[in-house]
Write a structure and sequence with these properties.
This protein has about 260 residues and is α/β, with parallel strands linked by helices. It has 2 domains: about 160 residues, TPP-binding domain (Rossmann fold, 3-Layer(aba) Sandwich), CATH 3.40.50; about 90 residues, SIR2/SIRT2 'Small Domain' (2-Layer Sandwich), CATH 3.30.1600. Helices cover about 35% and strands about 15% of the residues. Strand 2, helix 7 and strand 3 form a beta-alpha-beta unit.
Length: about 260
């Protein structure tokens, strides 16, 4: 259970942040949950309760029923659109403005970090705010081909959209089950983790790969490790500073303690 006690920021952490030349942050579903966004499975309510999200968020589901999958994602975007960035999101955006080099890696697809003002972001699993070419043949051929790389942030309701370059169907620009992360995205995340002086792991379970390996890449490179999570994770015992409290409570306190 999350602690509601006052947050104590150790002097050693304050010094480490002030001296850090490159800070890398990894965020997971926990920070979005503080904004009221349900977890992936918990979002299956109402008309969608009968569907398993693991059966909708796949390339095969999109080939089989593209209209159904797109309708589900429009509904998910509606849920996300009702949420607002919380103090944790805002504190990370402020931290980026204060530090010389700052990289935010997120497993979340809700776009709340962007809305909070963060700019140097690596979206490991993509974003619900974008569509991209799927390479799926709109004539009904049951295969996904290589894509032309087209992306757009212009969603429309009630219809399937086609790529203006190649005519393939457009799909959410997110990583589905059975898909691998874009190589350049993963490489950027690994590089940022290996080169940082201080790494913050926030609201992530630490069990979903490849994101779960990023803190350990930072540890092997000698970075100071900070974990912020109400619940213990496999990373907890390896962290130099551990806050078992909500990010929306901890992060603003850290920013205030370091920069006033």
């Amino acid at each position: 259970m999350a602690s509601t006690s006052p947050v104590h920021v150790p002097d050693a952490l304050i010094a480490a942040l002030r001296q850090a030349k490159l800070v890398t942050v990894l965020t997971g579903a926990g920070i979005s949950a503080e904004s009221g966004i349900p977890t992936f499975r918990d979002s299956q309510t109402g008309l969608w309760a009968k569907y398993d999200p693991h059966e909708l968020a796949t390339p095969e589901a999109f080939l089989r029923s593209p209209g159904l999958v797109m309708e589900w994602y429009r509904w998910r975007r509606m849920l996300v659109g009702k949420a607002e960035p919380n103090p944790g999101h805002a504190a990370l955006a402020e931290m980026e403005r204060r530090l010389p080099n700052f990289t935010l890696i997120t497993q979340n697809v809700d776009g709340l970090h962007v809305r909070a003002g963060s700019r140097n972001i690596i979206e490991l699993h993509g974003s619900l705010q974008r569509l991209r070419c799927s390479g799926a043949n709109p004539s009904g051929e049951k295969r996904i081909t290589s894509t032309c790389g087209y992306t757009t942030d212009e969603w429309q309701d009630g219809e399937l959209l086609h790529c203006p370059r190649c005519g393939a169907l457009l799909r959410p620009d997110v990583v589905w089950f059975g898909e691998v992360l874009k190589a350049s995205t993963l490489e950027a995340a690994l590089r940022s983790s290996r080169e940082c002086n201080l790494f913050l792991s926030i609201g992530t379970s630490g069990v979903v790969e490849p994101a779960a390996s990023l803190p350990y890449e930072a540890l092997r490179a000698g970075a100071v490790m900070v974990e912020i999570n109400p619940n213990p994770t496999p990373l907890s015992v390896h962290s130099h500073f551990l806050f078992q409290q909500p990010a929306g409570q901890v992060l603003p306190t850290i920013v205030q303690a370091v920069w006033g």
